[in-house]
């Protein structure tokens, strides 16, 4: 077989596969086949197969699975701590970072080896620029080389995929860190206390001190209830009295809906029921039942009655009740609230403001009720809302306990306490308001407070208030009064308690699974890339390339010596002067080995054939 001449025009001599003189004239050293120890099974698999890369990429996938299992276990749980290391707590975030980094590193090692192997596939059966060796080598080492490969090789599918994986690995760990959040959420505190008082019955013992105007056989109102009434009546207009506060040791509690005996207030405009009964020398406006406001101008022309607050009970009913103190309550004649059987108080306000010189009338009522309460405590602030009582009416017979029924449970009010409260409110809230010359007067402070809502004298009077404004202000004041009285009833010692659930704020793990897709996709893509490269190398149709991967020794040993002449010798500027890109090489078999040879032939499959093709080279 003919061989190409050496650089000094000396013909090549015949030689065996183990005793070939290379084209540079240097004789190969003789090797004893027993000098090198035969590799073990696993060492051979690591050198001549894909065992190391397969283990690495599968380990990467296993680490991602382990990461998902750990995050699933702690998702929604208290933030864990895994001990200390160098005086620092090892947190779940540390573990996520460690597993993600290891997974990416192991997958990347496989990707890099596969990219290095692709350069041998690149030269198998085709001549390519020698500079592509360096392009592939740089791509397997980092970001800039991968970008260079994408640009220089014009996005070759398989190699470009590996280059993209090399670029993408830089973002995997930061993205995975975004998946882990710590949220402060309430959790049940077993040692916490959450209770709120409620009551299903009400009664007070008789007091020794009687109130002026109260019949002798009636019990006196207790100081606590008197204080509750006036606390509501004289509360500031911009203050809303809260319902009974719960006991919540943790500052965050929830309670089931519950019912409690309470007082409810209602307000209605009854102006359409007013009748003008003005006679000679008198201005008189009346409601049905004989409830009137009158200015007798002949008596004292300088004094004008501008409001009359009277209990909606006729004088005859009052007299009858006084004659039978122990047997019944006051009988009210209601116009707007006839369905209230057992009101604690029912009143009319007949008034005029001097600006409009028009008379109007309002009715308001306080009555027993059993509303449904909803209470919740959040960050130490208690909020209670009421839903209307579907069982407003209580059964009441003279001398007997006032009873109601809610969900099969009986609610009771002591009759003596009820009658006493009626009498006290009747005495406290009734009276006149009038103008004498230029000054405003009222029979009591509470009467003055009530009429100020309708533009009638006194401190805090809103002279520009409309009738609707007055009704809204009166409704707010009565709601405060009813709430204040209810709170007093629920504050005594002999009450029931509704138990709630106490919560404590606790930091828990929240996993955003969308971000975990980053390491999952990267490991899966690395596995797909590995399988693709192995398949391409195994099924290559032209020349099945050797499994050299990133071996630098293999690159040095297989380079055709004649290429040194074309590269300008051994100096290290060959990468900068473009000589490597001008040299075309391809991979051929050299006996039992391989060699990168110069030339553009794609038909030569052995060194001998390539040498024949290169005959005459100088």
Automatic annotation (TrEMBL):
Keyword Transmembrane in record: yes
Q: Which domain of life is it from?
A: Eukaryota
* Stretches for region Disordered: 1-37
| Record field: transmembrane | 49-71, 83-108, 513-539
Q: Keywords in UniProt for this one?
A: Membrane, Transmembrane, Transmembrane helix
Q: Kindly indicate whether the keyword Cell division belongs to this entry.
A: no
Question: What name goes with this protein?
Answer: Uncharacterized protein
What species does this protein belong to?
Lophiotrema nucula
Write the lineage as a comma-separated list.
Answer: Eukaryota, Fungi, Dikarya, Ascomycota, Pezizomycotina
């Amino acid at each position: 077989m003919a061989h190409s001449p050496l650089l000094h025009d000396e013909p090549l001599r015949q030689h065996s596969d183990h005793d070939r003189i290379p084209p540079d004239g240097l004789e190969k050293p003789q090797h004893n086949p027993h000098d090198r120890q035969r590799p073990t099974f696993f060492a051979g698999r690591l050198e001549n197969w894909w065992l190391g890369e397969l283990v690495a990429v599968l380990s990467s996938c296993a680490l991602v699975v382990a990461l998902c299992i750990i995050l699933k276990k702690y998702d929604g749980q208290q933030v864990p701590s895994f001990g200390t290391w160098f005086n620092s707590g090892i947190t779940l975030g540390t573990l996520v970072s460690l597993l993600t980094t290891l997974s990416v590193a192991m997958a990347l090692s496989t990707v890099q080896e596969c990219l290095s192997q692709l350069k041998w596939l690149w030269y198998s059966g085709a001549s390519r620029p020698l500079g592509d060796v360096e392009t592939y080598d740089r791509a397997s080492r980092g970001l800039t080389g991968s970008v260079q490969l994408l640009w220089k090789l014009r996005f070759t599918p398989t190699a470009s995929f590996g280059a993209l994986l090399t670029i993408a690995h830089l973002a995997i760990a930061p993205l995975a860190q975004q998946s882990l959040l710590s949220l402060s959420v309430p959790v049940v505190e077993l040692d916490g206390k959450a209770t709120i008082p409620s009551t299903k019955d009400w009664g007070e013992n008789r007091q020794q001190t009687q109130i002026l105007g109260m019949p002798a056989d009636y019990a006196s109102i207790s100081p606590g209830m008197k204080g509750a009434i006036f606390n509501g009546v004289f509360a500031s207009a911009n203050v809303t009295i809260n319902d009974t506060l719960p006991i919540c040791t943790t500052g965050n509690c929830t309670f089931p809906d519950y019912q409690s005996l309470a007082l409810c207030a209602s307000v209605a405009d009854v102006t359409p029921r007013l009748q003008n009964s003005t006679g000679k020398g008198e201005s008189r406006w009346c409601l049905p039942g004989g409830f009137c406001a009158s200015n007798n101008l002949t008596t004292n022309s300088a004094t004008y009655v501008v409001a009359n607050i009277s209990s909606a009970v006729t004088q005859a009913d009052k007299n009858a009740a006084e004659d039978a103190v122990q047997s019944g309550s006051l009988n009210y004649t209601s116009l707007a609230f006839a369905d209230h059987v057992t009101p604690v108080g029912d009143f009319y306000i007949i008034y005029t403001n001097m600006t409009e010189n028009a008379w109007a009338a309002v009715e308001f009522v306080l009555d027993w009720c059993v509303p449904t309460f909803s209470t919740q405590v959040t960050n130490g602030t208690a909020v209670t809302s009421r839903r209307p009582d579907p069982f407003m009416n209580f059964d009441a017979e003279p001398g007997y306990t006032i009873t109601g029924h809610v969900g099969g449970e009986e609610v009771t009010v002591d009759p003596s306490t009820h009658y006493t409260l009626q009498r006290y409110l009747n005495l406290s809230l009734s009276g006149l308001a009038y103008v004498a010359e230029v000054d405003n007067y009222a029979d009591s402070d509470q009467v003055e407070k009530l009429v100020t809502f309708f533009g009638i004298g006194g401190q805090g009077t809103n002279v520009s208030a409309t009738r609707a404004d007055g009704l809204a202000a009166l409704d707010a004041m009565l709601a405060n009064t009813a709430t204040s009285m209810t709170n007093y009833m629920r504050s005594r010692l002999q009450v029931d308690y509704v138990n709630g659930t106490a919560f404590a704020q606790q930091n828990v793990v929240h996993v955003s699974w969308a971000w975990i897709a980053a390491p999952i996709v990267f490991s899966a893509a690395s596995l797909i890339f590995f399988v693709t490269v192995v398949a391409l190398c195994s099924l290559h149709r032209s020349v099945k390339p050797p499994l050299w991967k990133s071996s630098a020794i293999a690159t040095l040993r297989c380079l055709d010596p004649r290429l040194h002449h074309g590269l300008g010798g051994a100096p290290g500027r060959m990468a900068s002067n473009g000589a490597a890109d001008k040299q075309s090489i391809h991979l051929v078999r050299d006996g039992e080995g391989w060699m990168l040879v110069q030339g553009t032939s794609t038909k030569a499959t052995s060194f001998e054939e390539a040498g024949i093709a290169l005959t005459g080279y100088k």
